[in-house]
């Protein structure tokens, strides 16, 4: 296996293997181990021996030639000068050491060729000076691998000096497959970690690598120490297609595998917290420009969630589930934007306190997998006598708002603020997906309450909206990708090591071949996934009424609510007369009633038709609210009564007054939007 390391020329070069333990390599013998350790130190000694042999052969060939003496002298001077010039790109110490070595060796060779290798002191100089020069290179090699004892800058060959970080030191590098991590110590009182962050582009240029391949992780306990991470090869260039979930039937508390990092490590995300690991529950923001692969990223996350046994998903998509249609039947509740999403937002707000009370009553400070099981443990009982209560478990709840910019535009930029701040304690995670999480679309309070972010390619000016400033300073730049590298992303989330934050990853791609697998996953979720617990179902039904139906059919088999709604709409008696029930008692032979006032053609300036009486109008209005509730349209306003007003000759101002009266009667509740009211289900109002 090939690895990378810093060499004295300041570049990232390759070498084979690291030190072997006794018994490894070389046939598994001690001799092989010793030979392996000695090999790096042999070149200077081989050069010493070759110089002596060349001197003996040269004397045999040119011992009596004056012209050869002139040529050898000129060659010696020329080689020494060339060595000095070629050493310009290395450190000053290495340049001088190389030039002195070449000058001494070439001078001895010239003398040996002309006078003879055993004449006068020539042989003594060879036997004493040669080993000294060879040993000096051996010592230099030892010091090169021990930067703590070497002069400043010897470990990086002047790399840091080139990028404006002179006198900074690089320590022993940790070499992994396609990843080098080197500790950096800066000049005390002269340099800070910010100086390294600003020099990352120059370091990448010096190493001939893209900027995303070089990042810096500061030491949280020091302003002058950190780790420089270099990934020479982009392992993300190869597209990996999604083939199925990573952990079918596992718990939502286990990591979601959504892709891989640039060094090949899996890209993981956690949603629930873990009190033993000290990890908090989280919400996720998925942000990326058009063409950045945001849809595939969302599918990676959603398929992982739906494959777990103890979670339910409420999903809103104003694009009518264009990307998520194969998975829709596995969702506990789906909405297509508009009024449906308004109802879902109101329902999410209502279930938070109900779920929080249940968790607190059963002794859970936060949701854990045990909360999704039947409560047979006396330590988690709501009974005052301490015996196991046997209450049904409460599955984890994921509320997902796709293309959330549409929802924020309709409901206000602080729509999710309360949800984001309170939902984590209720065993819930909020997932918000939009292209540009700027402050004119999402309130700062909401953005601050979304601890996790999957940042895909974007406009360079939008990087600060997605990623924390510290991660950008460490080398993360999604703006460098734009829409040219779909699926490339940075992930910041609890449970991930902070030094991984500036490491790019890539999610898997969904093609047409993934559709049958997604459909089978949705079918598995119908039959094996969790269902809403009584507390959650009761709270949402009290707000959404018939708009929330869950996934359970009459025979107990899970089924998508959308499919059941179609079946109920089509469930009608095909036999008998094709006549409305209210017209069944009309005698077709009876004469039509006489005209009433207002039924004839209108005169200019008068209203058409007959207005209902006040009592009749109020009854019609009550019937209209009941009809809206039956249809699942639980958020209404005057504009929803436009056709109704035209039909019954009533004005929108009259409807506005009746809405306020209905609110006083408890049939409606005000929402955060002016002029919008939430219908209180009839049973709840009663």
Q: Approximately what portion of the residues adopt beta-strand conformation?
A: 5-15%
CATH homologous superfamily of the largest domain - what is it? P-loop containing nucleotide triphosphate hydrolases
Helical coverage, percent range: 25-40%
Total strands: the figure is 20
Low-pLDDT ranges: 1-27, 146-154, 552-583, 595-607
The backbone outline, from C-alpha atoms, is elongated
Textual characterization of the structure:
With 686 residues, the chain is an alpha+beta fold. It has four domains: 24-144; 149-230, 2-Layer Sandwich (Alpha-Beta Plaits); 256-361 and 394-540, Rossmann fold (3-Layer(aba) Sandwich); 609-685, Winged helix-like DNA-binding domain superfamily/Winged helix DNA-binding domain (Arc Repressor Mutant, subunit A, Orthogonal Bundle). It contains 21 helices and 20 strands. It has a ten-stranded mixed β-sheet with strand order 9-8-17-16-15-10-14-13-11-12. Helix 2 runs antiparallel to helix 5 (122-144) and helix 9 (339-361) packs antiparallel against helix 16 (534-544). The radius of gyration is 38 Å and the shape is elongated. Keywords: ATP-binding, Nucleotide-binding. Residues 264-465 form the FtsK domain. ATP binds at residues 288-295. One of its GO terms (molecular function) is ATP binding.
């Amino acid at each position: 296996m090939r690895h990378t390391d810093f060499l004295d020329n300041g570049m990232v070069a390759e070498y084979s293997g690291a030190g072997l333990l006794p018994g490894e390599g070389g046939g598994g013998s001690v001799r092989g181990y010793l030979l392996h350790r000695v090999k790096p130190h042999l070149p200077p000694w081989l050069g010493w021996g070759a110089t002596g042999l060349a001197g003996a052969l040269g004397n045999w060939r040119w011992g009596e030639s004056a012209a050869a003496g002139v040529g050898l002298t000129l060659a010696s001077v020329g080689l020494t000068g060339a060595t000095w010039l070629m050493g310009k790109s290395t450190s000053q110490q290495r340049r001088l050491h190389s030039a002195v070595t070449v000058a001494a060796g070439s001078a001895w060779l010239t003398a040996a060729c002309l006078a003879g290798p055993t004449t006068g002191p020539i042989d003594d100089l060879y036997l004493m000076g040669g080993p000294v020069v060879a040993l000096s290179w051996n010592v230099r090699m030892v010091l090169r691998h021990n930067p703590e004892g070497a002069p400043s800058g010897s470990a990086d060959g002047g790399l840091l000096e080139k990028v404006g970080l002179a006198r900074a030191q690089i320590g022993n590098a940790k070499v992994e497959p396609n990843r080098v991590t080197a500790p950096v110590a800066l000049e005390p009182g002269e340099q800070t970690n910010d100086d390294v962050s600003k020099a990352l582009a120059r370091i990448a240029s010096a190493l001939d690598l893209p900027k995303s391949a070089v990042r810096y992780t500061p030491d949280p306990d020091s302003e002058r120490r950190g780790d420089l991470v270099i990934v020479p090869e982009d392992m993300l260039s190869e597209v990996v297609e999604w083939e199925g979930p990573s952990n079918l039937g596992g718990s939502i508390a286990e990591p979601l595998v959504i892709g891989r990092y640039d060094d090949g490590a899996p890209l993981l995300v956690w949603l629930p917290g873990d009190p033993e690991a000290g990890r908090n529950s989280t919400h996720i923001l998925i942000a990326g420009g058009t063409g950045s692969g945001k849809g595939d990223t969302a599918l990676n996350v959603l398929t992982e969630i739906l494959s777990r046994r103890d979670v339910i998903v409420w999903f809103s998509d104003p694009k009518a589930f264009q990307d998520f249609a194969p998975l829709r039947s596995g969702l506990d509740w789906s909405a297509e934007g508009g009024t449906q999403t308004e109802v879902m937002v109101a329902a999410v707000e209502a279930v938070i306190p109900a779920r929080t009370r249940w968790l607190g009553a059963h002794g859970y400070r936060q949701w854990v997998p045990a909360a999704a099981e039947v409560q047979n443990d006396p330590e988690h009982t709501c009974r005052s006598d301490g015996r196991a209560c046997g209450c049904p478990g409460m599955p984890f709840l994921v509320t997902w708002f796709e293309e959330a910019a549409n929802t924020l535009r309709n409901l206000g930029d602080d729509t999710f603020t309360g949800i984001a701040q309170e939902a984590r304690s209720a065993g819930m995670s909020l997932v918000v997906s939009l292209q540009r999480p700027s402050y004119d679309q999402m309130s700062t309070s909401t953005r601050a309450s979304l601890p996790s972010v999957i940042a895909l390619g974007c406009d360079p000016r939008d990087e600060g909206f997605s990623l924390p400033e510290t991660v950008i300073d460490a080398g993360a730049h999604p703006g460098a990708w734009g829409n040219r590298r779909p699926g490339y992303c940075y992930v910041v989330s609890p449970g991930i090591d902070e030094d991984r934050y500036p490491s790019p990853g890539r999610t898997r791609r969904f093609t047409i071949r993934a559709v049958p697998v997604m459909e089978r996953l949705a079918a598995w979720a119908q039959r094996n996934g969790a269902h809403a617990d009584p507390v959650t179902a009761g709270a949402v039904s009290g707000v959404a009424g018939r708009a929330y139906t869950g996934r359970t059919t009459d025979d107990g088999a899970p089924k998508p609510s959308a499919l059941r709604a179609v079946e109920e709409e089509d469930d009608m008696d095909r036999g008998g007369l094709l006549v409305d029930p209210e017209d069944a008692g009309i005698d077709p032979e009876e004469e039509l009633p006489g005209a009433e006032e207002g039924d004839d053609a209108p005169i200019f300036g008068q209203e058409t038709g007959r207005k209902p009486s006040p009592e009749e109008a109020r009854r019609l209005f009550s019937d209209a609210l009941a009809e809206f509730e039956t249809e699942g349209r639980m958020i209404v306003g005057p504009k929803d009564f436009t056709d109704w007003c035209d039909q019954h000759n009533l004005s929108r101002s009259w409807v506005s007054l009746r809405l306020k009266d209905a609110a006083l009667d408890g049939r409606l509740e005000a929402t955060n939007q002016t002029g919008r009211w939430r219908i209180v289900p009839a049973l709840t109002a009663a």
